[in-house]
Specification:
- By secondary structure, the protein is of the alpha+beta class.
- The chain is about 15% helix and about 50% strand.
- The protein is built from 2 helices and 17 strands.
- It has a 17-stranded mixed beta sheet that branches.
Length: about 210
């Protein structure tokens, strides 16, 4: 894991790194309204937006234990990414469209915050693997391990490991949680193979920088 020092906050802001790209991925930076082709090892900071085409995917790391995978036909904005004190960070992602799978580990050991927001629904975690999908008038969350707290307005719903939760934007309430299906569990198992490669690439890049 990466140790964040107080000096890091003064020197440069935290950033996600595009570790792995499949197909065509676009990056719209906070400083420009122009959408450009994204490149592997490019940095993504607060205010930036990542867009994948229908046949494309992208994996990004913040550190060895915090990463996310953007599925095909998806659009996510890094709405906030800052250091939080000497030992933590705040990462808030806004899913505008599509699907995002997040791996967030060991937040309980720091003062960090990690949230995915979509359609006014906020999914907050402490140490979890989960996927959020915005589809039609619904926001869906699949929790693979750990616990996700879905919130919208004054409503909240825990989505525990091996559960799937849905908030209906049309009805304005939560639907009953259900168990993850075989396709959802297989989807996560497939990601575990990718995660290993993404983490290895991160480690190799850190070794070169060190």
């Amino acid at each position: 894991a990466v140790t964040l020092l107080a000096g890091d906050a003064a020197s440069e802001p935290p950033a996600y790194v595009l570790e792995k790209i499949k197909g065509t991925v676009f990056l719209k930076t906070m400083d420009s309204a122009v959408t450009e082709d994204a490149q592997e090892e490019e940095t993504v900071v607060g205010g930036d937006e990542i867009i994948t085409r229908a046949d494309s995917e992208a994996s990004l790391t913040l550190n060895e234990d915090t990463m996310f995978h953007l599925g095909p036909g998806s659009d996510v904005k890094v709405s906030q990414l800052v250091w939080k004190g000497p030992n933590g960070f705040i990462s808030r992602l806004e899913l505008l469209e599509g699907k995002i799978l997040s791996e967030v580990e060991k937040l309980s050991q720091s003062d960090s915050t990690f949230e995915v927001q979509s359609g006014g629904v906020v999914c907050g975690v402490r140490g979890t693997a989960f996927e959020v999908q915005k589809q039609g008038d619904a926001v869906n969350t699949s929790t693979f391990h750990g616990l996700v707290e879905m919130k919208s307005g004054g409503l909240s719903r825990p989505v525990r490991a091996n559960e799937h939760g849905t908030f209906s934007l049309r009805r304005g309430n939560f639907l009953p949680n259900r168990a993850l299906g075989p396709a959802e569990r297989n989807h996560y198992r497939k990601w575990l193979g990718q995660r290993m490669l993404v983490r290895k690439k991160y480690q190799q890049r850190q070794a070169l920088l060190g």
